[in-house]
Structure formats: C-alpha cells, structure tokens
Amino acid sequence: MTDALLRLDRVNSFYGPVQVHFDLSLEVGKGEIVCLLGGNASGKSTTMKIILGLLKPRSGQVSFDGRPLTGLATPQIVRRGIGSVPESRRLFATMTVRENVLMGAYTRDDRKAVVEDHERVLDLFPKLRERHAQQAGTLSGGEQQMVAMARALMGRPRLIVMDEPTMGLSPLHVDKVLELIGTINRQGVSVFMVEQNASLALRIAHRGYVLQTGRIVLSGPAADLARDPQIRDAYLGGTRAA
Ligand SMILES: Nc1ncnc2c1ncn2[C@@H]1O[C@H](COP(=O)(O)OP(=O)(O)OP(=O)(O)O)[C@@H](O)[C@H]1O
Ligand SMILES: [Mg+2]
Hints:
Elements: E1 4-15, E2 18-29, E3 33-37, H1 44-51, E4 59-64, E5 67-68, H2 74-80, E6 82-85, H3 97-103, H4 111-124, H5 126-130, H6 141-153, E7 159-163, H7 171-186, E8 190-195, H8 198-204, E9 207-212, E10 215-221, H9 222-227, H10 229-234
Parallel strand pairs: 3-8, 3-9, 6-7, 7-8
Antiparallel strand pairs: 1-2, 1-4, 4-5, 9-10
Helix pairs in contact: 3-6, 6-7, 7-8
Bound molecules: adenosine-5'-triphosphate and magnesium ion.
Residues 44-45, 87, 163 line the site of magnesium ion (MG).
C-alpha cells in the first residue's frame, strides 16, 4: 500500500532480555480502521507503546505519514498527529470530565481553536456535555471510554490508536463505542485498534492483523478474517479473559 499513514517495518522489541515482537510489520492506510487481534500477552499493548514512543524498538522502523518517528518523545509524536486511548482509559479520576477532555489539548497553544474543537467533541459526545462537572472516576465504564476518546480527539489526531476500547463494557456501551469509532473514522481520522475480542473488532474494522507471541500470523480484509477457520476457533466463539 502506498498510501500508508502509519507503518511499522520489521520491528523487534524487548523488555530487558525478553523479546516481545519478532519482525513486526504492519500498516494503517489513510481513512482505514485497522485492528490488531491477539490473545493475552501476545504483544498488543506493547505495539501501542512502540507507536507512541513509550518503548523504543531495538531494531526496525516506525514511520508516520512517510516520516520516521525514531527518536521522538511521546509529546512530539502526539503533535505529529497520533492520539491515543490507552488500556483502562487512564483518566485522572479526581478531575472533572471537562478537565480530562481538555488535557488532550496539552500540546496545543491555539487556545481559540481548542475551544472550538472542545465544542465539536462535545457535540459528538453529548453525554459528556451533561456531565462536564462530574469527577471522571465516578463515571460508568462506557462514559469513561467516551472521555478517553474525546481527550484523544482534542489533539486533532490524524490517527487514533486504541487499546481494547470495548474491554469491560456492557453490550449497550460496546455498541455505542463501536458506533462512535465509526463516526470518528468517517470524519477523516484513521483508527488502529488493539482487541482481544475479534468478533467485535471485525464488525467495524476494514482490515486486521493477528498477533501470536509477537509475530503476525495472519492478516487481511476484516470480512476474510471473520470467515477464517483459524480465527473462528481461536478468537470467535472462544472464551474471553476478563
Ligand atoms: N513493562 C514490562 N516489563 C517486562 N515485561 C513486560 C512489560 N510489559 C509487558 N511485558 C510482557 O510482554 C509481553 C506482552 O505484553 P503486552 O502487554 O504487550 O500483551 P497484550 O497482548 O497487550 O496482553 P493483554 O491481552 O493481556 O493485554 C507479556 O509477556 C508481558 O508479560
Ligand atoms: Mg494489553
């Protein structure tokens, strides 16, 4: 694909002596929703860390819009246009919804545009407008997920990376969050989502990759993956760890 927005090229990563990724290569094209599927400890969250510059690959390259991200610190990577929704949302529990959302604009100094973007984001998440003064830690899981997504959007990202966005949510909130991911994508933001729950991720993704102990073992259009017997056995009908 020539129109890749995010590209990982033969990434090898380690925690100390332990290797997590083995020649990991993947791409997210402009306008795409791409999911990275895999079981526990397969290296999904570590892939997020690599993209966000929180862990440096020992070898291989990460590039965004044709430019390497090598050596950049996380705030610089965010400024390039990558927003993140981390595992377990990582909100500031004692701060309000409004404060949490605005935290997503911390790398920006265009205050007027920030106010406008805040309004736009609240239009997308009307629930958060209602609850702007509530402490984030007291929100439901689905509402917290919305705060984390709103916060990521405040950085005006071209790509949002999400770690298990549906984890722990009620079916109703799962539907809502997937719908919002689709809406954000249609507004022009590419999405890279890491998911253990393949059937949910493949409902909205255009393409997917399957990671097994740090190696991509399968990839393709979401519809093909959903039909793949290997995926069906391992991830669709299988039990999901809490
Ligand atoms: N900070 C760390 N130090 C050492 N090892 C780590 C660290 N973080 C993760 N690991 C190990 O790296 C491997 C991959 O972890 P990672 O969190 O990327 O998996 P995951 O696919 O996100 O799993 P899960 O589905 O449980 O969230 C695991 O074996 C894990 O124990
Ligand atoms: Mg994880």
